[in-house]
Amino acid sequence: MDPHLLRTFVVVADRRSFSAAAAELGYTQSAVSQQIAALEADLGLALLSRRPVVPTPAGERLLEHAGPLLLRHRAARADVLRAAAGPAGRLTVAASPLACVPAIARGLSPAALEGVEVRLRTVGRERVAGEVSSGSADLGLVDGITAPSDPLRLPDMGPLSGFGVAEEELVVVLPAGHPLSHRRGLALTDLTDALWLRAPVAVPVERLRELAGGGGFRAALRYDGEDLHTVLNLAAAGNGLVLLPASVTAGVTRGVPLTAPRVVHRVEVLYAEPAGQAAALAAQLRQPPSSTPPGTSARGS
Known about the structure:
By secondary structure, the chain is of the alpha/beta class. The chain contains ten helices and 13 strands. It has helices at 3-15, 18-25, 29-43, 57-84, 102-107, 128-134, 205-212, 228-236, 246-249, 277-285; strands spanning 48-49, 54-55, 90-95, 117-122, 139-146, 160-168, 170-173, 186-187, 195-198, 218-222, 242-245, 255-260, 264-272. The strands form four sheets. The chain has a five-stranded mixed β-sheet with strand order 4-3-5-13-6, with helices on both faces. It has a four-stranded mixed β-sheet with strand order 8-12-7-11. A two-stranded antiparallel ribbon has the order 1-2. α1 packs across α3 (29-43) and α4 (57-84) crosses α6 (128-134).
């Protein structure tokens, strides 16, 4: 299948409109219609119903494959360009919202990469590996919750290398006066009946249920932004508990360490080969064994 036709199909299916897809892609509506017709002729199947514009059962199945196929196509293109490129004067780092913990921030010093400009931008956790694989970023920093020294569970995004660069304990952020705020440690099972703040930067409620092995963990308020100051203010005001890395709350608000289950906040660095300066920066970010237990990436790198 032609990836250009496949991309057009994805946009039409997403927008539920040929005209809206044409405007987004910069094509005429007739060109979009011709591309969809060419893709359907290639497969010998109708992929979209026209009125309304919705995917057929065959189209729904193709959509399941389209995202990974298009990503691998971009990754292959980026890999070839990286192999042919000379040394770059700039490195782009894509980081999930909680990945730039203090130890990582210190590791981004330009001292070891003289003459190279480092640009850091924040993306969602689920996008980091794709950004690196597709060449949109030279290096990725992704965070998550896992058992000590265990790798993060990341999607397969092609031939990426990576390793753990930081681990730290998690704390439960409680409002002032909360009956559990003076405990020295908390088990997650003690908090199943509590109300939790739902926010992209915090540990998802679904992950809390998975860790505790049961239900509960009701969401009290949903915050769709990624500003940690706002998250901490909402939690401190009693709008829901939140589980965060200890370094985020240090000197700002009260956080009680999570003692059970035994999980940590982990940050991994991701890069594609040949890496060059990206590998040099990745090595610079690796912390001493005393502060970061050794780990490997989810791809066994």
